[in-house]
Amino acid sequence: MTVKVPTVIHIGGSSGGESNDDIDDDANDDESSHSSTLSSLSDFVSLPRPFHSQQRYSGFSVVAWDKKTLVSNMILEGLDYLQQDTANVVALYESPSSASRTARFFNHQVYRICDYPPDTPLARTVLGPCRYALVHGTAFPMYLQHGRPPAGLLEHWRDVLPSVFVEPKFVSEIDVNARVYAYAPCESIPTHINDPFMHFHLSGLDSLHLLTKRTPRLLATVERPCIVKVTHALSNDKGTFVIKSTLDEEKFAQYLVDSGQSSYIVTEYFQAELAVSGHFFIHPNGSVIWLGSNEICQGETSILTLSSQDYLRDLQLLFCRDVVHYCRSLGYWGNVGMDVLFKKNTQGYLTHVYPRVTATLPAVMMLQWLGMEYCLYKHGKDSVRYEGTASELLEQVSRHNAKAKNSKVVLFSFVELKSGFTKMTIGVYGKSLDLCQRILDRFCWSAIASTEEEETAVSS
């Protein structure tokens, strides 16, 4: 999908080793600089909203996030509502694997997911779960395989959000009797807060056509052009193929052999004008806390716009209602994310449901804390790199934030490699997308996928 930078909506690689000191925070950030080539949100502003009030549907209420209650506190409130024991609860944000036998949480017999080719160990154990520590809270501990985030990350969050960030308690082991709030069901975990079989079902693309009619048409066989997807991939970059030729079909067939997957769906192919992700929390009583939205771009970058949050929420509420009703019918409650693709007439299609915290959620919550208009969030697990050490990265970010008036750089996770690079998840917040992009380009270095030799972290 081709994307362009959105204009302001009033409705609610150069090397990373280069110095960032010469970026003028106030230069070239006038309104004309917003019309370059990154989204299509502006095309939708004049169109009618398909859903104006949740009151049209009984039993479905949506409230805005209060900017205070964090993920663990939401879970604790749900457990209290259900009158369940809260004494031994742990959050597990590390993804299981069915492709890597060295993974700490290996799903071999049940809850088999498609993560082929497998993420590198550092992406799975550090870059992914560490970013959720920012929004986890203190109601109960969260598991990190290495016991704590990399040195300097918690201090960085305190500098960025001195009156908001609270450090969670971390554990490196999960007690056998613990009740686990899991990113995805794990066969080695005895007790999940949500039933793991139901959780696994909701994670599959084969559940979409059971929960809503507003989803791409399901095909019985391959009809070119079409899209084929394995049912239980935890990320969109695994097991998704656009089929337009015999060669495309052969590549997908080979992927099924290599990955050991056999379950997939075939849907119609269509051109989307706008792709949006919504993030919300389902309370056991059925109420919904709307946490925010972002635009999905090509590659590993998301665009977040503060003034478009209400509009994007309204675009997605019909889909949210369908997801909530189906989740409640199965007994699921907790964090949910979803992807919705729109045509220019605001006709939308639900393409993914994620019954878990989502990769972009920390950046969405940070947008509301900082109150800046835009964010460019880059969250690739293996290709987002800074050319330098972690301490150099932290120093450069701190130097920028100390002098910048119209922007803020936030590191959500990072890990330093012995190869001299630092992998990271990064968000640049500012008053214009052009400014955010120029700053982001200074920190990010486009590199090839990492090798096993590179994949060695420097000890903290």
Structural descriptors:
single chain, disordered N terminus, 11 helices, globular, alpha+beta, 460 residues, eleven-stranded mixed beta sheet
Descriptive notes:
This protein is of the alpha+beta class and 460 residues long. The chain is 25% helix and 22% strand. It has 11 helices and 19 strands. The longest helix is centred in the last third of the chain and has 22 residues, at 309-330. The protein is globular. It starts with 61 loop residues before the first strand and ends in a 14-residue tail after the last strand. Mean pLDDT is 87; it is low at 1-22, 28-39, 51-56 and 447-453.
> Which structural category do the helix and sheet elements fall into?
alpha+beta
Overall average residue pLDDT = 87
The coarse overall form would be globular
The total of beta strands comes to: 19
What separation lies between the terminal Cα atoms? 40 Å
Stretches with pLDDT under 50, minimum 5 residues:
1-22, 28-39, 51-56, 447-453
In which range does the helix fraction lie? 25-40%
Largest sheet: 11 strands, mixed
What value does the Rg take, in angstroms? 21 Å
H/E order of the elements? EHEHHEHEEHHEEEHEEEEHEEHEEHEEHE
SS element count, helices:
11
Instruction: Give me the oligomer status.
Output: single chain
Beta content: 15-25%
How do the strands and helices of this protein lay out in sequence?
Elements: E1 62-64, H1 71-81, E2 89-92, H2 121-130, H3 133-136, E3 142-143, H4 153-160, E4 170-171, E5 179-182, H5 196-203, H6 208-211, E6 218-219, E7 226-230, E8 240-243, H7 246-259, E9 264-268, E10 274-282, E11 288-296, E12 301-305, H8 309-330, E13 334-342, E14 348-354, H9 361-370, E15 374-378, E16 384-386, H10 390-403, E17 407-416, E18 422-430, H11 433-443, E19 445-446
Parallel strand pairs: 1-11, 2-3, 2-5, 3-4
Antiparallel strand pairs: 6-9, 7-8, 7-9, 10-11, 10-13, 11-12, 12-15, 13-14, 15-18, 16-18, 16-19, 17-18
